[in-house]
Amino acid sequence: MKLQKLLSYVRRAVDDYNMINDGDKIAVGVSGGKDSLSLLVALKALQRFYPKRFEIEAISVSLGFENMDFSSVQKFCDNLEVNYTVVKTDIGEIIFDTRKEKNPCSLCAKMRKGALNDAVEGLGCNKVALGHNRDDVIETFFMAMFYEGRIYTFSPVTFLDRKKIYSIRPLIYVPEKDIMDFVKKENIAIVKNKCPVDGHTKREDIKNFIHEQSLKYDHFDEKIFGAIKRSDIKSWKD
């Protein structure tokens, strides 16, 4: 996938859900993975021609895992001329060593979100852009159904009243395979996740389930995503 195609996805999502307004200062949550780095590239490119003017910051939350190196992300941001901040935490130690969580993902996500939002607020940003792609939308939908017994997935735009910060997700129209293709073609260096449960989570099980259904039913993921867009799930009707 070329940058032009990525931008077309992002521009459509941004316009459909009014994600960006004049004067916004947007922090991009950068894990160092394919999605967040692609999002950073897309927003930087969009910034050049989008009619609404906005600023960009990049933020990584370090969980404190040994050998987690964000120097390549720093270089990446330098090349894009985007200010980059690394927030150091002990989240990994708290979850795996102190609490010894058997199902660590939910607590980790909450703690990472808290650390990220504090940094966003500290930098004077009013919005944070997260790198959730179309596959993430569908996977979260099935996870909520199978594990929680409810019809839910995260919204394109959410508002954290306590912090007065909006979360936006400009990649929601982009299939994961297209992002993988973009990263490969652009030769973007990815920071490998050092989390000990990476690849062995409930989300991975759901990802495999969706893949299996896609082999049985034509356009399975597209139909599910379309159903989500037409549903009464909060904030999804564009």
Give the helix/strand layout.
Layout: H1 3-16, E1 24-29, H2 34-49, E2 54-62, H3 71-80, E3 83-88, H4 91-98, H5 105-122, E4 127-129, H6 134-148, E5 157-160, E6 165-168, H7 176-186, H8 202-216, H9 220-230
Parallel strand pairs: 1-2, 1-4, 2-3, 4-6
Antiparallel strand pairs: 5-6
Helix pairs in contact: 1-2, 2-7, 6-8, 6-9
What characteristics describe this protein?
single chain; 238 residues; alpha/beta; Rossmann fold; 6-stranded mixed β-sheet; 9 helices; 6 strands
Task: Provide a descriptive summary of the structure in words.
The chain has 238 residues and is α/β, with parallel strands linked by helices. The chain has one domain: Rossmann fold, CATH 3.40.50.620. Helix content is 50%, strand content 13%. It is built from nine helices and six strands, in the order αβαβαβααβαββααα. The chain has helices at residues 3-16, 34-49, 71-80, 91-98, 105-122, 134-148, 176-186, 202-216, 220-230, and strands at 24-29, 54-62, 83-88, 127-129, 157-160, 165-168. It has a six-stranded mixed beta sheet, sandwiched between helices. A hairpin with a 4-residue loop joins β5 and β6 (165-168). The longest helix has 18 residues, at 105-122. The two termini are 25 Å apart. The model has no long low-confidence stretch (mean pLDDT 92).
